[in-house]
Amino acid sequence: MQTYRIRPAIVLSFAIALLAGCIGSEANPPEPQHASPAAVHAGETTASGRALSERTPAPAEAAAPAVDPTRKDAVVIRPVGDQLEFDTAEFTARAGQTLTIIFENTATSEAMSHNVVVLTTGADINRLGAAAMAAGEAMDYVPDDPAVVAATPLAAPGETVEVTFTVPDQPGAYPFVCTFAGHYVMMQGIMQVTS
Ligand SMILES: [Cu+2]
Predict the structure, then answer these.
(1) 132 with 141: CB under 8 angstroms?
(2) What is the DSSP annotation of 86-126?
(3) How many domains does the chain have?
(4) Most CB within 10 Å of its CB: which of 16, 58, 136, 144?
């Protein structure tokens, strides 16, 4: 198991983002789909993590880590370019630890808003995904459901969001998904909780 596979993924996602930007610039007409800033999921979510990612908007700086990658209490997740894919397929956390998931939305397509929603072990992702669609923008695409362990706010392209929560006491594989607009079908990963 690898706790942090961020650095190679950053380089890869940045390269793909550049490619996608060149190829897809005319294929995707702008279609504003920003969530209302007020529609932040209630609970333990925090405000967007701008203080942790004081980077300049220059594209060359996009690959800089938002936090020290040696931190054991935080994990940084990004999308792969404008694809429906997280750059982190799996990460490890200790049972009961306090963990901050930072999601830096490096996508450039206007339609590629994302979030990171951690579910309980064995959660029915399809059921949750459908519930998220029903919850819609008013709920930031996060249903009020006991299967939701933690959820970041929705991040529009260029935004960074985060959530700090207590990792469950039960070791196991906890799926995480993006619940925005049906992305859960493709955007999935695993939080491995160890004792
Ligand atoms: Cu998404």
Answers:
(1) yes
(2) BS-SEEEEETT-EEEEEEE----STT--B--EEE-TT--HH
(3) 1
(4) 16
Indicate whether 1 belongs to any domain: no
Contacts of residue 13, Cβ cutoff 8 Å, sequence gap at least 6: 78, 79, 80, 81, 87, 106
In a domain, 124, yes or no: yes
Q: What is the largest CA-CA distance in the chain?
A: 49
Residue 179 Cα to ligand 1 midpoint, Å, equals: 6
CATH code of 32's domain: 2.60.40.420
- Reported as a single tens digit per residue, the pLDDT across 102-129 is 999 999 999 999 999 999 999 999 999 9
Model pTM score = 0.67
Q: How far is the CA of 160 from the centre of ligand 1 (A)?
A: 13
3 state DSSP class of 145: coil
Distance in Å, CA 115 to ligand 1 centroid:
6
Separation of 170 CA from ligand 1 center, angstroms?
27
Q: Give the model confidence (pLDDT) of 47-60 as tens digits.
A: 443 333 343 344 44
29-75 pLDDT, tens digit each: 444 444 444 333 433 444 443 333 343 344 444 444 455 656 779 99
Distances from the Cα of 96 to the Cα of 91, 138, 146, 165, 169, angstroms: 15, 31, 18, 9, 5
- Give yes or no for a contact between 81 and 17, defined as CB atoms under 8 angstroms apart: yes
